[in-house]
Design brief:
With 608 residues, the chain is mainly α. Among the domains are: 251 residues, no CATH class; 41 residues. Helices cover 71% and strands 2% of the residues. It is built from 22 helices and six strands. A two-stranded antiparallel sheet has the order 1-2. A two-stranded parallel ribbon has the order 3-4. Strands 5-6 form a two-stranded antiparallel sheet. Helix 12 runs antiparallel to helix 16. It is globular, with a radius of gyration of 25 Å. The mean pLDDT is 87.
Length: 608
Amino acid sequence: MVNNLTLLIGIPILIGIINIILPSMLKKILNMVLVLYLLFVTSQIYINLSGDIVPNVMLFDTLILSIDKLSFLMIAFIQLLSLIIFVFAYSGVNEKIMSKFMILYPLTIGFSNGAILSVNSWSLLIFWGLSGIMLYLFGLLGNTKDTSATAKKTFIIVGGSDVLLILGLVFLRFLEYSNGWQLWDIKVNLEGEIAYIAFISLLIASFAKAGVFPFHTWLPDYSKDTPVESVAFLPASIDKLLGIYLLARLVLSVFVINITVHLVLMSIGAFTIIIAVMMALIQHNGRRLLGYHAVSQVGYMVLGIGTASVLAFAGGLFHLINNTLYKTGLFLSLGSVEKQTGTNDLDELGGLGNKMFLTFLPALIAALSISGIPPFNGFFSKWMIYQGVLDFAKDLTPGYQIWALVCLILAIFGSALTLASFLKFLHTIFLGRTLKKFEKIQESPVMQWVATSVLALLCVIFGIFAVKIPLEKLIYPVLIENGMSLPIWIGTYSPIMMISLFGLIFILGYAIYIMTKSIRYDDIYLGGMDALEKYRITGTGWYNEIKNMSPLKGFYSAAEIKLFDIYSWLKGISVVFAKILSLLHLGQLQFYSLWIVVGTLILLWVIK
């Protein structure tokens, strides 16, 4: 009997290889059958796990693949999102890249499934590295002038972090020699240099994959320069799942970390939120705006998972799956607009809401969700994280309490700025008068708005029925399996009550509008002449002044010179390092031998 875990990895890889020789239409059909089949296999695994049947995979008497409640959560959303994104891509991918896209798509699913299911260091390294290569190859499918440079930057940051993943796993082997190369259920005390080196190395690998500050700078560029289907598939969904999955494992079952480390993780999360959302506010390119918000939202996940509170940890996992829904929906909605108009520049768009209503409505729901507006799913997971931080802070000393509360304030402020940013996003694209050049624009193809509508519907369901469906069915089992108590709620929240209040306010507002409406449209003149469309009021105008505000001017100036870009740091350091090496290597064999001996002695000293 074939193991279901093997199918989740082997079948997509096999389909990817077969697609190399098939024509484009057969590739499409085969991939559609694949994503449907993988979702069916995942449902069978869920049934088995409910009956405590774990389908392990052994190789040479060594456990290679296994699944528990946490890895199942990731696997389930990889398959679900792969299906929804492929529905969009079926009629959306540019014909010039269709063939390559349909080869890379199943391979990426297989490698990502393998990384999640791996419980052995060697298999994790193989699948994690292969998924990173797929990220690079998808990046090369773009058609902008910066595509090649962006793909290279992504490969260096994400691929370079794989070196630290190797280092961290090797050091774990030294710390827990009796476990061999087995992962996850280790519980290493975070004490001593080796333990900290292992933890920091693995943490950086997680952060680079997920896009956490300061390893985030590849993500906005990738969002701008690659096909929108690639962005929705990888940075917005699968890479987030992989990176935060590794972080959750580190915190949950690999290391036993202390309060200070928890606070450091919380600080990194809060700093990621505020830095990225401030950059998103001033963007004029819609893709880059969403790219920075993809970074900002991962900050909430790090804040939640890094907090030593069951409620915050559960909220962090919940926010991870919520983010994949609304962030994927936002990228795909913008992609639909871009395909119909030929641009993603916010200054060149406007008034498309009445022309593309079936695209506008899912984008509106996704924007409200990411902004944390009740009763949508983004509010509920953020609310859990906020409560978890308060729960964690109540037992700390006064100094640590202030530290934790500053993180909380930054997160809440970040959510307010997110709302401001998406008011800009919605206004510039969908609201206002329709530009003359878009008067004949038509709605996006059926499969595109169906995909975004399904994502929007899930945002609504996961918000209204947050406890009954995602939490009780998917998140709480993770807590129980790892010996954690179920979260204790602070205060009460009723989605039905929120819907009723919003409905009442809407009805009241609409009634006032009907009774008092008196609208007159006048022509606009500028200097006695008809005003040109380029002089219209756009949704980006007010935000342009943010860069010049005295408290923020220094921050934006630093960003412009790439002070926050680790890629620029690495380039500068590598140049200096190369010059030093060129001075040390004189072309004589005895000097090369000396450096090998010195390097070996340093390594032995580190691991002694």
